[in-house]
Amino acid sequence: MRSDVLPPALPAFDQLTPDAALAHLKATLATQRARVAELTQREDPSWARLVEPLDDVGEALSNAWGPISHLFSVTSTPQWRAVHDEGQPLITDFWLELSQSERLCEAYKAIAARDDFAALSPTRQKIINDALRDFTLSGIGLPADDKARYKALSMALSEKASRFESQLMDAVQAYGLHITDARRLSGIPAGAQQRARAKAEARNLEGAWITLDFPSFDAVITHADDRALRETLYTAWVTRASDQGPLAGQFDNGPLMIDILKLRQQKAELLGFEHPAALSLATKMAESVDQVEAFLLDLAARAKPRAQAEWDALQAFAREQGGPDTLMPWDAAYYGEKLKDRELGLSDEVLKPYFPVTQVIHGLFDLVESLYGVSIAPVSGISTWHADVTTYAVRQANGEISGLFYLDPYARDQKRGGAWMDECLGRHRREHDLQVPVAYLVCNFTPPHDDEPGLLTFDEVTTLFHEFGHGLHHLLTQVDEAGVAGIRGVEWDAVELPSQFMENWCYHPETLKRFARHYQTGEPLPEALIDQLTRARTWQSGLSTVRQVEFALFDLRIHRDPPATTDAVLEVLSAVRDQVAVTRPPAFNRMPWSFSHIFAGGYAAGYYSYKWAEVLSADAFAAFEESNFAPETAHRFRDAILARGGSAPAMALFTDFRGRAPNPDALLRHSGLAAA
Fold first, then answer.
1. Nearest 5°: CA angle at 63, between 58 and 68?
2. Is 496 designated active site?
């Protein structure tokens, strides 16, 4: 296939049914098992005789399982959930078989021992060496009984992580608050009120229906004048899928948390690691748990005095406004928004009219096109899973397709919350055929309603830029080897570099001028507001930094010494808060119960990656500032970082771009934490 032809492996979402998808998965598993068995019987293994065919095995499995996994997240009907739950252990079992195949491991060792190994490209050598490392981390050298135990532990972890995410989605979908007194909606933006009334109408109810999808929750917690309503929504939010709150015990993730931590400890010990945190860091940039903890505590020490001052100022402001003497968590966003409006002339409601979704998307595309010399345009004739989804092609200057992506921007029922980028197809080349990468970009923005388009908060603008940064890492890769193309093979604590790098452009005045225009008048965002937005970058940066450090330290410590009970989990969290936080939530707060990043995602003992990569991203953006945003800087970033994927260690790629090791000064400056 030429790179200007659409990939034939794109999922046929308009034809895909749960039963057919499951049948296809099972058939593919059987076919690829036979293929692997044949490959491991070959004599004289080589790159062409083993690694390339195995890449094809991986692509076949990804093409069969990927749509199921994706639809589980974006249209989680009972039917698709059942298929996902049945398919998850099947696909996990397959990959575990490969990771523990002694014949396969010996074949890779044979390739590494060949006389011509040194003649392979550095990228191919890295793939072989990474594979040998991963075989070790999969228990390849364990006795037969221990290998079987490793497999059982991995299967159990996969099942429990999936259940954790499912119960969290169930808890969000199950909650609803019926409001019949319109006065209780005072302060909530008109658009959010309309959507709440529409939800009530859909349930044949009078009044409004408030849910825990993020746009609905955020509208209440940030704007509702009714303090009791804010408290009610806050309580429901922080007790999702727990033993507390309005749905106490119905979808309790507590036992799953403990099971997951216990299984991870057993898995780490089986592989010779002291704890899960050490196992996690074996494949990351960071060298040790102590190094990560020191990094986080240093950030906390820099940020905590500022955070305390910010909290004191917020409390004083709230009292001025006739608010409570002591702020509670359900008050912080409400008075924070009012204080931000007073001090900076900024509020969500002032800014949102300038950020209609489609306009922001086009502005984002315009920026990327100017930076990297590509074009982005819709592609017709590709089936999707919902009418809101649009498919786009990223084309190089010569018109060839560099990649495709699906954009699913709006919140809806039976869709997982949050925002993410995921891989649909990876890039790889076979002789003259090139499969271009394809990505899923998923958000949960407020959908259009009546005559009002979907309008974004500034935080949502940065979320879109963030996820598109992940997308660019996947889509602009020029690596032809499947194992390290795009986001594949990138150390987890570096994978956030391209995403957080993109957030910097949201504070760049010239970029804002590209797309920030009032959806009714077409008037550009006033210069005064642009100036205030750039100032707002450091707004409550102390509080936001200690909050992220709190999450990261908690994650690190429960994986360094896994608690055996949910009470012990809360004790670890309390100790972390004593050390770095300036506020304490109520005792009923159950944040860990919904911390899907570490219990259902890939961030176990790795949540620190967000702050770690933020150092890299700020330093990278500083190179643009230092060059006065010269085009060649963007080209170097594209060629050194985005194009090279996991083809070399992340530190080597960063040093290649920056000419030196990362420096935290830019992050401290951008965050307002640098010494005066």
1. 120
2. no
pLDDT at 1: 32
Find the farthest-apart pair of alpha carbons in the chain and give their distance in angstroms, rounded.
80
pLDDT higher than 90, residue 23: yes
One-letter identity of residue 406? Y
Pairwise CA distance, residues 665 & 671, whole Å: 10
Residue 231 is assigned to a structural domain of this protein: yes
pLDDT, residue 431, reads 80
How much helix, strand and coil, in percent to the nearest 5, is found in the chain?
A: 60, 10, 30
Examine residue 454 and state whether it is found in any structural domain, yes or no: no
pTM over 0.85: yes
Provide the sign of the torsion angle of the four alpha carbons 461, 464, 470, 471, taken in this order: negative
pLDDT digits (tens, 9 = 90+) for 196-244: 999 999 999 999 999 999 999 999 999 999 999 999 999 999 999 999 9
Alpha helices in 271-408 (DSSP H): 276-281, 289-320, 329-344, 348-351, 357-372
Torsion sign over Cα 132, 133, 138, 139 = positive
The answer to whether residues 27 and 127 belong to one domain is: yes
pLDDT at residue 494 above 80?
yes
Distance (Å) of CA 429 to CA 55, 85, 425, 480, 649: 10, 33, 13, 5, 22
Q: What is the DSSP letter of 172?
A: H
Strand 208-210 with 428-430, pairing? unpaired
Q: Looking at residue 674, what is its pLDDT?
A: 76
DSSP 391-449: EEEEE-TTS-EEEEEEEEEE--TTS-SS-EEEEEE--EEETTEEEPPEEEEEEEEPPPB
Nearest to 413 by CA among 618, 129, 202: 202
The boundaries of the domain holding residue 38 are 18-99+101-137
Nearest CA among 335, 299, 309, 235 for reference residue 548:
299
| C-alpha to C-alpha distances, 615 to 368, 555, 624, 661, 669, nearest whole angstrom | 22, 19, 15, 11, 11
268 to 6, 147, 207, 282, 287: CA distances (angstroms): 43, 13, 53, 11, 17
Give yes or no: residues 116 and 197 share one domain. no
The CATH number assigned to the domain holding 28 equals 1.20.1050.40
**Are 641 and 653 a contacting pair, CB within 8 Å?**
yes
| Structural domain total, the chain | 2
Q: Tokens 């944040």 sit at which residue? A: 591
Q: Which SS3 state, helix, strand or coil, does residue 51 take?
A: helix
pLDDT at 5: 56
In a domain, 404, yes or no: no
446 in any annotated domain: no
Q: Is 377 helix (H, G, I), strand (E, B) or coil?
A: strand
Kindly state whether residues 132 and 189 are assigned to the same domain: no
Report, in angstroms and rounded to the nearest whole number, the Rg of the chain calculated over CA atoms: 25
Strand partners, 425: 438
Q: What is the average pLDDT score of the chain?
A: 95
Q: Are residues 111 and 49 in the same domain?
A: yes
**Which one is catalytic: 59, 310, 337, 467?**
467
Per-residue confidence at 484, pLDDT binned at 50, 70, 90? very high
pLDDT recorded at residue 676:
39
Tokens standing for residue 405? 């992506």
